[in-house]
Amino acid sequence: MLLVILVVLAAVGAVIGIDLVSKLGISANTSVVGALVAMLIGRIPLGFLRRMRSVQRQNLAQSAISAATFASANALLTSVAIPYVFGRQDLVWPMLAGSFIGLVVDAWVLYRAFGSRLLPADAAWPPGTAAAETIKAGDRGGRRALILAGGTAVGLAGTLFSLPLSAAGVAFLGNVWALMMFGIGLMLRQYSPGLFGTDLGAGFIPHGVMVGAGVVALGQAAHLLTGRRARKRQKEAEESAATLAVTDPTVEYTVDERGLRITLIRGYALFTAGAVVLAVLGGLIGDMSPLGIVGWVLFAAFAALVHELIVGLAAMQSGWFPSFAVTLIFLILGLAIGIPSVPLALLIGYVSATGPAFADMGYDLKAGWLLRRDHRPWNPYEREGRRQQFLAALIGFAVALAVVAVAWRSYFGQGLIPPVAKVYADTIKTGLSDPDAVRTMLLWAVPGAAIQLIGGTRRQMGVMLATGLLILTPQACWMVLGALVVRVVYRRLRGPAADEELNLVGAGVIAGSSLGDSAQILKT
User: Fold this and answer.
1) Is the C-alpha dihedral spanning 349, 350, 353, 355 positive or negative?
2) Burial class of residue 443 in the structure, from the number of CB atoms within 10 Å of its CB (0-12 exposed, 13-18 middle, 19+ buried)
3) Nearby residues of 521 by Cβ (< 8 Å), 6 or more positions away
4) What whole-number distance in Å separates Cα of residue 371 and Cα of residue 385?
5) Which of 252-256, 354-358, 378-382 has the weakest average pLDDT?
6) pTM over 0.90
7) What torsion do the CA atoms of 419, 424, 425, 427 make, to the nearest 10 degrees?
8) What is the pLDDT of residues 13-67, one digit of tens each?
9) Is the dihedral of CA 211, 214, 220, 223 positive or negative?
């Protein structure tokens, strides 16, 4: 019965995903919706449905529906739309196969890396926290439910007035320094034309900041994995975890540096294998030289891995993932180094299929981590829970693949094309409209790199500044910065006891915003 419920929820999520991305150019986080549906099913007075009252089953339900939503919209339909808009409908099916491989590898890497020092379980992952708190409030009720309900009401009210209150909810949950840079980036993007007489969101300036921050972030990750002090840091972390495990065993890292290193190496190998499959199915073997094919495959795998890591780091701290911007960076680099148009279209489709599922899997595993942390013994229970969530996500991916395979002709035939796919295809056709684009990116990469270096791996300040610069959402900056001020002041007044209350309010606001957005989508 659980399998049937997961498949049905995944189908609903997949349809919502492709409808949104093709008609409005956006995607929605449906995890809270899935959790609420699972709660309602559990209240039906039938013996075999009462099992859905289990918070772990509700967690599997939200994992499946959110995985299907992001997979269908951001990974599969957007990817296959690129060769379609480019005028190569014969490449749609090869692109669908390649993007599905990239999607599965993408989620697998996060599944294996979650709980490491690079992608820690105790980081913000805001939508995951919102889903977990919603499920716990529905199960336990009491004061926690009242606080969460109040935050949810505020989030719902915000959608009625078109206020981006989800940004405020994130600010109650994430790293203060990271979100401060995110708010500053949002503010500069909104007010730079009036303040400086130029739009900092134009001319590839934010892309340059992201390039610099991303390069340093990768260097920081590499140093974390290979530095001489890595073994010492791991030993200190294990000793600290052993001390604290008496009261809370979930403080430990479940993936050490060696495990993370192996996961990333295997991830690159799998992305390389997926690129080979795409090259063969896409007919690139006959269009490029052997050396060109090798270079294309290695670059595609590298771009896919880097794309998912940068998108995942931003999503971990803020709940936003700048997938379009990072993919566009690799598109510009591909044009600059002279990759032919058809291979470049396939490469960008492959890269764009990674990232969103990586972030969504992080949200889902964060929700599971919060729901499982009170169980004893914790570690084996947590690992099995993650495995079950990954299987639920695979069900969502399979359903999303079936939905996209059936529906893409109908949507594309009506002219319902994801807007970002049009941007990618048009950019490939016309080439670089700004001949100084690469130079601009390199110039602005310097401050992005410097800020990322100062912030370190835990704060991701450079990545978060670039993410804010890439988003033009009116008044979102005030929501983030205002909520940070409230958070700091309230914690000074209440002390450590304020943390749980702020988490509940933030989770409620995010959940309410998600519900409000979903209601507007259904109305549309």
Assistant:
1) negative
2) middle
3) 16, 19, 20, 28
4) 10
5) 252-256
6) no
7) 120
8) 888 888 877 876 666 677 777 777 777 887 777 776 778 788 888 899 999 999 9
9) negative
